[in-house]
Automatic annotation (TrEMBL):
One of its GO terms (molecular function) is NAD(P)HX epimerase activity. SUPFAM superfamilies: YjeF N-terminal domain-like. Keywords: Cytoplasm, Isomerase, Metal-binding, Mitochondrion, NAD, NADP, Nucleotide-binding, Potassium. (6S)-NADPHX binds at N63, N64, G65, G66, D67, G148, F149, S150, F151, G152, G153, P154, D177. It comes from Aspergillus viridinutans. K(+) binds at N64, D144, S180. Residues 11-238 form the YjeF N-terminal domain. The keyword Transferase does not apply. It is an enzyme of class 5 (isomerase). NCBIfam families: yjeF_nterm. Its cofactor is K(+). This is NAD(P)H-hydrate epimerase. Pfam families: YjeF_N (PF03853). InterPro entries: YjeF_N_dom, YjeF_N_dom_sf, YJEFN_prot_NAXE-like.
């Protein structure tokens, strides 16, 4: 089964439609994406607990990193021992307000979705590790949630070193939406960090991106929440998801429909 690809521009437009017309919040979309990541990654498919419970989730500053934070929470609930490396937290413009008893009446405390996700992980005693190199040494599996479909390069510190270490490591990797350092259209860079990066597994969220045609490995798709009108508007294929799963395994020869 191969699926049509969606361009980065259309993927961003689709997310906007989901929130502005579909009634979805950013938190909800991150939750569904992170749940799909957690179902694909191991999790009795690629890496059962018997293969090692130490899962290192590497999160970037954007929404892709938020998906990784959600996945880490689910992994903790599944019985894994996740840890999170989150070197550069982003500033998201989409916030949700909540009242605080410490503020004057009528004032609101602004808390980002990522901050709430961090709090949830801290409440589960999931550690945020300060040293990536040391954390990688004890990892049995790695979730690459650094960059998503909006990445266009170039890599900026601290990510060139991180990508290089992941690339040269023997630890199996699941990348979220696109292998980090890859251009969403043209695939891996021709040289430098990421030029030889080929993770063991890739999960495309909502639909494959054009760079999937350069990928060789196990490919999953998560997007079971899409409505018929969204599928038709963007010309997507809607795969048959088995049972109650949020993900389905698919081929990697996605056709460009840009």
């Amino acid at each position: 089964m191969s699926l049509k690809a969606i361009s980065a521009k259309d993927a961003a437009s689709l997310d906007k439609d989901l929130m502005e017309m579909g009634g979805w919040s950013l938190d909800q979309l991150m939750e569904l994406a992170g749940l799909s990541v957690s179902q694909a990654g191991m999790f009795y498919r690629l890496h059962p607990p018997s293969a090692g419970k130490n899962v290192l989730v590497v999160c970037g500053p954007g929404n892709n990193g938020g998906d990784g934070l959600v996945a880490a929470r689910h992994l903790a609930q599944y019985g894994y021992t996740p840890s999170v490396y989150y070197p550069k937290e982003g500033k998201n413009e989409l916030y949700q307000a909540s009242h605080s008893r410490d503020l004057p009446i009528g004032k609101k405390l602004i808390i980002s979705p990522q901050q709430r996700l961090k709090t949830q992980l801290q409440n589960l005693s999931v550690p945020f590790v300060p040293d990536f190199t040391e954390a990688l040494k004890s990892a049995d599996f790695l979730v690459d949630a650094i960059f998503g479909f909006s990445f266009g390069g170039p890599l900026r510190d601290p990510f060139p070193s991180i990508i290089s270490q992941i690339e040269s490591s023997s630890v199996p990797v699941l990348s979220v939406d696109a292998p980090s350092s890859w251009d969403v259209q043209s695939g891996p860079p021709k040289e430098g960090p990421g030029s030889k990066f080929m993770p063991e597994a890739l999960i495309s969220l909502t639909a494959p991106k054009p760079c999937v045609k350069y990928y060789r490995g196990r490919h999953f798709v998560g997007g079971r929440f899409l409505t018929k009108s969204i599928v038709e508007k963007y010309g997507l294929d809607c795969p048959d998801y088995p049972g109650i799963d949020q993900i389905v395994e698919a081929g990697v020869d996605a056709e460009g429909r840009l």
